[in-house]
């Protein structure tokens, strides 16, 4: 609008005073532009050129003021100014069109940018929906698993309670039967004596004094001869106490429940870590030359002949060890190894920078978090003997890198064999395997097995 006012003012400056007066006179007329009324004389009478421009713009707005000016200039025979105004207005229009095009282009770019952003936001939210659904599905599966475990635990608890109650009832019944037998034996003795006394009493009734010898010693001796009987004064049935049976049964029940609770907790711990199972494969580049690896990388045993293998910085040369290919530098990691029938083995994890060429001292200080078996019966770690409830046939190894811990499980009984805490993890860790010497084939292979979670 300011540009238009400036153009109109420049045009009016080129009018002589006489032309300017004529210009104002025509502005007072109606229908100079069809349908438009004129500007009142009172407003035009003392108006200078700037004021007239303001009146035009106020009265007819932008395009209308331009049209009215060109019409009046034609009336006063100043077509030169009309052409100049037309040319100026076309340039203004072109400038406006250019500005409009630039604005349109900016609008389209902004629109495209917003569209990309909106699509990205939609994609992120769709991914979040999939993530939430996946988490909800895992939670649902976890809930199903915990319900099944709880049902199993309560079924086991009820079964244990029923067995304990049956055992208690059996003990009470046995005591009752013993008391009944004792009572029957006493009654049998009393009844036998009663029978004998009754018989003797009948015989006594049949006696009569002898006519020949009414006071004979034989008659009096018979009368004094009472059959031998037992003194029943102190004989009786002592009330049976069943409290001891109850106490013993309850004690046994408590021990059973404690053991079952311990087993259930251990099984729960094992189930929780088994969900972090990884598919571990042996790394042949790290295997000692005496080791024989299966083609699938799941089995290793010590051979009787040293094989010709290329030397590299990763290979063990001083001990019959091999590492897994998978490294651990964060999160949680679990795998299981079958050790059934073996006389010696070592399992666990080691840090990446361990010395594979010199002598080995397997301890946490040297980057070894392992346990092992010696001579088919002694379990140890870092030279310390471990106490195990039963010989494991399958060992689970669990690493919690963030929690700086390594745990070993009997994968069949869920018993915890050993655990390392406050481990100094500062680099990558690798699964560690040592199958032990062959002993002419008596020591079976180590086998990495699938985890049944």
Output the keywords.
453 residues, 6-stranded antiparallel beta sheet, 7-stranded antiparallel beta sheet
Description:
It is a single chain. Helix content is 49%, strand content 14%. By secondary structure, the chain is of the alpha+beta class. The strands form 2 sheets. A 7-stranded antiparallel beta sheet has the order 1-2-13-4-9-10-11, with helices on one face. A 6-stranded antiparallel beta sheet has the order 3-12-5-6-7-8, with no helix packed on it. A hairpin with a 5-residue loop joins strand 10 and strand 11.
What is the element layout, followed by pairings?
Blueprint: H1 2-13, H2 17-27, H3 41-44, H4 49-75, H5 79-206, H6 217-224, H7 243-274, E1 291-293, E2 299-302, E3 322-323, E4 332-338, E5 345-351, E6 368-374, E7 378-381, E8 384-386, E9 394-400, E10 405-410, E11 416-420, E12 429-434, E13 446-449
Antiparallel strand pairs: 1-2, 2-13, 3-12, 4-9, 4-13, 5-6, 5-12, 6-7, 7-8, 9-10, 10-11
Helix pairs in contact: 1-4, 1-5, 2-4, 4-5, 5-7
Q: TL;DR of this structure?
A:
The protein is of the alpha+beta class and 453 residues long. The chain contains seven helices and 13 strands. The chain is 49% helix and 14% strand.
Main β sheet profile: 7 strands, antiparallel
Secondary structure: helix percent: 40-55%
- Gyration radius (Cα, Å) is 56 Å
Count every beta strand, where a strand is a DSSP E run of 2 or more residues: 13
